[in-house]
Amino acid sequence: MFQIGKTIVSEEILENDFVCNLNACKGACCVGGEYGAPLEDSETDKLVNVYQDVKPYLRPEGIKTIEEQGAFVKGEDGEWETPLVNNNECAYVVFSEDGIAKCGLEAAYEDGVTKWKKPISCHLYPVRTREYSEFTAVNYHKWEICDPACSLGKELKVPIYKFVKDALIRKFGKAWYNELEEVAKGNPK
C-alpha cells in the first residue's frame, strides 16, 4: 500500500495486468453477482436526471424494474446501487446481438444523448474504491469471471492502472494519476 494525497492505494493495481475481454466473459460483471453497481451519493440524482433520455436505450425488463424500484436502490449494506432485473443483471444492461452485456447508460453517452457516462464504479472496474473518514482506499477487486481479462492484460502487458486510466482521472484528477505513474515507475513488477 502507498499513499497519494488522501488515498491509500493497493500495489496490486500496479502489479497485475487487465484488459476486458468481452468476447470471453460476455460482460458477466454486469450480469453476475448479488448486488447492483455501487453508486456514489452524487450519482443517484444523475440517474434520475438522465433516465428519460436513457430509457429508449434500455430493455423492457430494465425499464419495468426501474419504474417499479426506482432509478437506484439502497443495498443490503445500506449503500446506493443500481436496481437488478430479477435479482440478476443490472437494470441498465442491454445485450448486443452476440449476447454481450453492455451499458445502456454508456450507449446514450456515446451517442451524445447524455453528458454522464456511467457510474464511476463501473468505469473503474476492476478497481474498487471505499470512502473512509480520513482517506479513500483504492483496491483491486479480483473476480474469477475476469480471468480472461487478466490473461489478455498479461498478454498485452497492460497493468490495471493503465487500463482504467480515464476512470482514475475522472475520479481523482490528472495530477493524482501523474503521481500514480511516478510511483509505478519506481515499482517494477
Number of structural units classed as domains:
2
What's the arrangement of strands in the largest beta sheet? 1-2-10-9
**Portion of residues within helices:** 40-55%
Question: What is the string of SSEs from the N terminus onward?
Answer: EEHHHHEEEEEEHHEEHHHH
Largest sheet: 4 strands, mixed
Helix segment tally? 10
Low-confidence stretches: none
Strand content: 15-25%
- Average of the residue pLDDT scores: 94
InterPro entries: Rv0495c
Family: Belongs to the Rv0495c family.
Pfam family, one: DUF3109
Protein name: DUF3109 family protein
Give a structural overview.
By secondary structure, the chain is α+β, with helices and mostly antiparallel strands. The protein folds into two domains: 1-18 and 126-188, no CATH class; 27-124, no CATH class. The protein is 41% helix and 16% strand. The protein is built from ten helices and ten strands. The strands form four sheets. Strands 1-2-10-9 form a four-stranded mixed beta sheet, with helices on one face. α9 (165-172) packs across α10 (174-185). The chain is globular, with a radius of gyration of 17 Å. This is DUF3109 family protein. InterPro entries: Rv0495c. It holds the Pfam family DUF3109. Belongs to the Rv0495c family.
Keywords:
two-stranded antiparallel sheet; single chain; 2 domains; alpha+beta; about 190 residues
Short characterization:
The chain is α+β, with helices and mostly antiparallel strands. It is 41% helix and 16% strand.
